[in-house]
Write a structure and sequence with these properties.
alpha/beta, 49% helix, 5-stranded mixed beta sheet
Length: 319
């Protein structure tokens, strides 16, 4: 996570909508389709790929909410047992920390997972640069872009609605979503096909390992190797890493991958603790000065080595 990111006055995607305090929705009232909901009635999106604000950015947001309230509504969808957040995780978190009990929300009903994920990804991209995202966040963005490129019409409908909510017209970069094929997705982010494929594999890692990839305790290439394991085996690897305080190496990861589908806790433990045999070190032989002066005067290094090899060969043959 990037703790040193510069302070922002725009705190979340829909915060781009307006900065006029007249847009604030009075508690308990409905205005232009906005509903006041209990802060605690909204669950986080079930597979939210983005990290919440920390440090100064979070403190700035809390203070802004204390001073002005939540000026712009979050976007949620209805679920069987309440509401699920689509856009506004940071506002909800800051509002709770600021002591608010209610938050303005735009409620979407009967929204399928595929469409919900578009809201989650795109509203975040409208306020973040792709290059500033963590590895797992980039992976989630690319997955959404790739998955939705074949469902462009519905995606465009959602994007038009989101940009209207935020008051930002469709434009180049993140706003230009009319992709014709996957190659255009790669081109938008300046990535090669192989780089994209590796990033997409990050999505196959379990959440704890994705977090370790982001904080640098698991290197990228090692994480990609582990992503080929079934989730149950990844969980074994993670648990043993934590218990043994071991940092995964490429050799460990490749050995684990060789046995994908058959790993047990004992096997994982063995591969994470097995000592790598050191390579045989070359033997350095020094010729005593008395022998050098007696037999090798005027000889260069190559000639000396040839003589010694012939003598030793004859010796071992005779022996």
């Amino acid at each position: 996570m990037k703790n040193n990111a510069p302070k922002r006055k725009i705190f979340d995607a829909v915060d781009l909508l307006i900065e006029d305090t007249s847009a604030q929705v009075p508690v308990g009232k409905r205005k232009d389709g906005v509903t006041m909901l209990s802060v605690d009635s909204i669950k986080s999106f079930h597979d939210h790929p983005f990290y919440l604000y920390e440090g100064d950015r979070l403190e700035d947001m809390i203070q802004s909410i204390r001073d002005h309230g939540v000026l712009n509504p979050v976007i949620v969808r209805t679920t069987e047992d309440g509401y699920e957040m689509l856009s506004g995780h940071n506002r909800q978190n800051a509002a709770r920390l600021a002591g608010l009990t209610e938050i303005p929300a735009i409620v979407k009903t009967d929204l399928p997972d595929t469409d919900a994920y578009v809201y989650v990804i795109e509203t975040n991209l409208m306020q973040r640069s792709f290059s500033d995202l963590e590895i797992s966040e980039k992976a989630a963005v690319l997955k959404e872009r790739y998955d939705k490129v074949l469902h462009q019409r519905q995606r465009n409908i959602i994007m038009e609605e989101v940009t209207k909510l935020e008051g930002v017209p469709l434009k180049g970069g993140h706003g230009d979503h009319h992709f014709k094929n996957r190659d255009e997705v790669d081109k938008e982010y300046g990535l090669s096909g192989s780089s994209v494929e590796r990033l997409l594999k990050v999505n196959d890692l379990i959440k704890p390992l994705r977090n370790k990839l982001d904080n640098g305790s698991v290197i990228f290439k090692v994480g990609i190797q582990i992503s080929f394991l079934p989730e149950s085996e990844q969980q074994l690897v993670y648990e043993q890493m934590m218990e043994l305080h071991v940092k995964l190496t490429m050799n460990m990861a490749m050995k684990l991958r060789e046995h994908s589908g058959e790993l047990t806790e004992a096997m994982v433990r063995r591969y994470l603790t097995k000592t790598v045999e050191p390579k045989d070190k070359p033997i350095n032989i020094k010729v005593p000065e008395t022998i050098s002066k007696k037999y090798f005067v005027g000889e260069d290094q190559k000639a000396i080595e040839d003589i010694m090899e012939n003598v030793l060969a004859a010796w071992f043959e005779w022996k």
